[in-house]
Amino acid sequence: MDYACSHIRLGARLYDLRQPMVMAIVNATPDSFFAASRAQTEEDLRAALTRAVNEGADIIDIGACSTRPAVQSGDGIVSEQEEWQRLQPALTIARQLEIRVPLSVDTFRADIARRAIEEFGVELINDISGKTSNFIGVLSEFNAGYVLTYNRANDTNKTANLLSDAMAFFSHKVDELHRAGISDIIIDPGFGFGQTVEESLSLLDNLGALRHIGCPILAGISRKRMAYQPAGLTPDTCLEQTLRLEAQALDQGAQILRVHDVAATKQIITQIANG
After folding, report:
1. Which end of the chain, N or C, is surrounded by fewer C-beta atoms within 10 Å?
2. Rounded to a whole number, what is the distance in angstroms from the first to the last CA of the chain?
3. Please, what's the b/e burial string for 227-246 (b: 16 or more CB within 10 A of its CB; e: otherwise)?
4. What is the DSSP letter of 102?
5. Which pTM was predicted?
6. Strands, DSSP E only, in 150-242?
């Protein structure tokens, strides 16, 4: 496979992306769309973080503000203060556990990102907003890695051509980030963010086109509507469908998979590697 980028720097280490990385999802929230991923108590957070490490996660992505579709439409966005009150204990526990893999924070708020980096040394910011200008100052100051997401719901220049719009967005934003001196960029096509199921599946079919951007590609498919709805299932029952779509994403050049099911995903990656 001709990957877009062979390495990514996160913190003080350089990671080889010729072997796909698995980003484990840990949700310090009461309302994330996949109920089994929610971890609010100290006990649950400790268990979720330990499980992610034991199952072989390469990155751990901690989120404290749900971005499920209902929230994106304005129903239930928590305040910045509440987001930090949820996030801080999770990061504290992660550091107490001396987790060695990079920590990522899933937030669309630059001030949250700054605090997470300053106080806990977080190596990666996973921003689903696509509003890069809010983050340039923080990223430039701390040299943190950045996940740049194409959020179609926030695209004021979109046309009927999803792939073309995503390519135009990434070309413009990556150039903007590079001109600001930010180079450790991962791109995420934003499956489900302002996209219908049909659009997301079509974008997955053409994911390989994003290799031309020249950044590592992250695919966040795990237990999303594009996995369960076509089969008439639910987030709780669509692991097989999720893994099938993730395998397709890898075949199309994705180098990082953001997942709820680390062990099962690692097994798929091993099977693909062994032919």
Report:
1. C
2. 13
3. bbbeeebebeebbebbbebb
4. P
5. 0.93
6. 185-188, 218-219
